[in-house]
Write a structure and sequence with these properties.
Length: 662
């Protein structure tokens, strides 16, 4: 009807062929009109559009599938034309960046604050490589702004779409928010390079920063200082106030030290109460000294923690690149050595590294190695020094004193190796050796009927702190056939302060087993009378420094050693303890002790420490010191007073010696 009304009409039809197949055709009907416009039939043309039709169909399908995918993928899909205008903006793009499609379609990237400033150069060069070749694909991780101004980390996968002639059609971008992953990575990175308690950088960070600092210093010819900081007696804070206060102290300390430094300086917590400061680009020579001084002053101010005013001090040491070390390890080692030196010199101070120090450290290292070998080779021996009754000269004790016989060094005295053995953990083994040797000797003397004196053995702080000491001693006396009552264990005051209760418990057990207990070097530590009262102790040994000072005090008319010796003697008697004065070298000292009721003494005046054989000979001789013979002839008064003593003593000794020989 429409054709008959004069209209040209075309339509698509699936036309069936004779063989039964069907193809899409377009049929076009054109009316044939005469001069007056009257309808006189129509032309019909049919053309086969089957191929075209199926391609279109395919395309439509593909496109709708693609769009559905683009909107469903967790990635934002964005397409840019060659002028970098957005031409596709998927649903996910909207939720990722906050802009809606109609706000951004047609918008050019360079008028749009989408890329974070610091990342623009990198993004620009990536886009150029994609547009101009050679890259067809590029992945980039950068920060982007969202519509609300917040910044997110986005991972982009971009590809350039080109036509058959290689002309750029568009850039297709798939984008993904990876902020949480980056944050987790940053967090991990932070945790790996920082200390959990104080939040300060840790050793890993120090290694990195030190390497770059040294490289820079070398290039620009400046210097770098590495400073070690260690709190003095931090363990006491932990022991007395608890670990929580200790932790708070470390945190506050970190803040305070950080505050004393420049922004560019690095403060690192190495471990426990050990910190390291890296000072870059020192101007002038006073640099590290000034900083060290400032830190020491800041640390000295009390830290208010949980109602306590915690007062601490620190020891510092530093080494400077390049003169004190060319590499990180040497520099660290040398700064550490300088810090130790500061500790030795009385703490609360700082020291610069010096080559003399390095030499000393190497010597110490040599001694340590030699000590280890000596332990394996059994190169130690005990010497014995008698302790005598003041009144009678009778030998009541014999103190065992450790010696080290070294091929190179000769006979080494304990002060030259015991502190080092303590520090390096060798003292446990060495102490064990001493206990075995002393009990063996004590048993031998008793069995041979050489004497009924007690053998005194020095116990080190580390032995005392070890809770296995009780069973260790039990085993040793059993094996060596030594009765515990033949031994007296000497313990210094300083080795008890750390854990008075624990030590007191251990001593109680030992004493119940039959061992006698002596407090050594009394007066040099921190024991107060109240401590003493509760300690299971038999003997007090007055430190030799007071005995040495007896005359000094008397001459000056002041208290000095004399007062202390007299006071301690009185105190000991009040507590029914025996008192031994150590280091008696002169008759005047013995006189004084006698006058003040001190019961026993030990010292060169009577006898030096001797090897076991020599001591036996000394005992056999009954070689009791003769006051009159050694007395200083100038002191008439003392001579008079001393006159009676040696006779008495000789007599007593002569009586005593045969008795003990039986
Ligand atoms: P100490 O326990 O106070 O031992 C007494 C020290 O005074 C000994 O030094 C002794 O030789 C010395 N001495 C004795 N009489 C006199 C004197 O009249 N004048 C002077 N100036 N000194 C005198 P030594 O043998 O050098 O031992 C030093 C320290 O080493 C000992 O002091 C003790 O603390 C430690 N020690 C020695 N042997 C051992 C041991 O087997 N184990 C442990 N843990 N420490 C030991
Ligand atoms: Ca001793
Ligand atoms: Ca002593």
């Amino acid at each position: 009807q429409r054709v008959m009304a004069g209209e040209t009409v075309s339509f698509e039809r699936l036309v069936e062929h004779a063989d039964g197949t069907a193809r899409w055709m377009i049929v076009r009907l054109t009316p044939r009109l005469d001069g007056q416009g009257r309808f006189g039939g129509y032309y019909s043309t049919t053309s086969d559009i089957h191929e075209q039709k199926s391609v279109q169909e395919e395309l439509r399908r593909a496109n709708s599938i693609l769009s559905a995918h683009f909107d469903n993928t967790p990635l934002a899909v964005i397409e840019w034309d060659p002028q970098l205008r957005a031409i596709r903006w998927s649903g996910r793009s909207e939720s990722l960046f906050g802009w809606k499609a109609d706000e951004v379609l047609g918008r050019s990237l360079d008028t749009w604050n989408l890329v974070f400033e610091d990342d623009r150069a990198a993004v620009g060069s990536m886009v150029r490589r994609l547009m101009n070749g050679p890259d067809a694909h590029a992945t980039i991780l950068n920060r982007n702004y969202r519509k609300d101004g917040s910044v997110i980390w986005v991972e982009w996968h971009n590809s350039a779409l080109r036509d058959a002639d290689g002309r750029l059609v568009s850039l297709l971008s798939l984008a993904q928010d990876v902020s949480s992953r980056i944050q987790a990575e940053e967090r991990l990175q932070f945790m790996a390079t920082h200390d959990g308690l104080t939040g300060l950088p840790n050793r890993i960070m120090l290694t990195e920063r030190l390497a770059t600092a040294m490289a820079r210093a070398q290039r620009f010819g400046h210097r770098v200082a590495l400073m070690f900081l260690d709190l003095d007696h931090f363990k006491d804070v932990n022991d007395t106030l608890g670990h929580r206060v200790g932790d708070e102290l470390l945190k506050s300390l970190a803040r305070r030290v950080r505050g004393a430094l420049r922004q560019s300086d690095l403060l690192v917590r190495l471990s426990g109460d050990e910190f390291v400061v890296l000072l870059e680009d020192l101007e002038g020579d006073g640099g590290p000294d000034r900083v060290a001084q400032k830190i020491l002053e800041d640390v000295m101010r009390p830290f208010p923690i949980e109602g306590h005013d915690v007062q601490v001090s620190a020891s510092l040491g530093f080494a400077v690149y390049p003169e004190d070390g060319q590499d990180a390890d040497t520099l660290l080692k040398n700064a550490d050595a300088a810090m130790y030196h500061a500790k030795e010199l009385g703490r609360n101070s700082y020291r610069a590294f010096s080559h003399a120090l390095a030499q000393r450290r190497d010597e110490r290292l040599g001694v340590e190695q030699a000590l280890r070998r000596a332990l394996k080779k059994d190169a130690f021996e005990l010497h014995y020094q008698p302790i005598l009754e003041v009144a009678t000269g009778r030998v009541t004790h014999v103190e065992s004193l450790l010696r080290w016989r070294d091929e190179k060094r000769g006979l080494v005295q304990p002060h030259a190796f015991i502190p080092l053995a303590e520090e390096t953990g060798l003292m446990r083994d060495l102490g064990h050796w001493v206990l075995v040797a002393a009990s063996t000797q004590a048993a031998a003397w008793r069995n041979a009927g050489i004497g009924d004196f007690i053998v005194s053995v020095n116990l080190s702080a580390s032995q005392l702190r070890d809770s296995t000491i009780v069973s260790e001693l039990e085993g040793i006396v059993t094996r060596t056939g030594c009765s515990p009552t033949w031994l007296e264990l000497e313990i210094t005051e300083t080795s008890m302060v750390r854990d008075l209760e624990g030590v007191s418990l251990t001593l109680g057990k030992l004493r119940r087993m039959g061992f006698r207990i002596a407090i050594d070097d009394f007066g040099t530590g921190f024991s107060s009378l109240s401590h003493l009262r509760h300690l299971p102790v038999d003997t007090l040994k007055i430190d030799k420094s007071f005995v040495a000072d007896i005359e000094g005090g008397r001459r000056a008319g002041l208290g000095g050693g004399a007062t202390i010796v007299a006071a301690v003697t009185g105190l000991a008697r009040g507590l029914s303890l025996e008192v031994v004065a150590e280091g008696v070298e002169r008759p005047e000292q013995l006189e004084f002790l006698k006058a003040h009721g001190c019961t026993a003494y030990q010292g060169y005046f009577a006898c030096r420490p001797l090897p076991a054989r020599d001591l036996e000979a000394w005992l056999a001789k009954g070689a009791v010191p003769d006051l009159a013979a050694v007395r200083a002839p100038a002191k008439a008064k003392v001579r008079e007073k001393a006159g009676a003593a040696p006779r008495k003593k000789v007599a007593a000794k002569k009586k005593a010696a045969p008795r003990s020989a039986k």
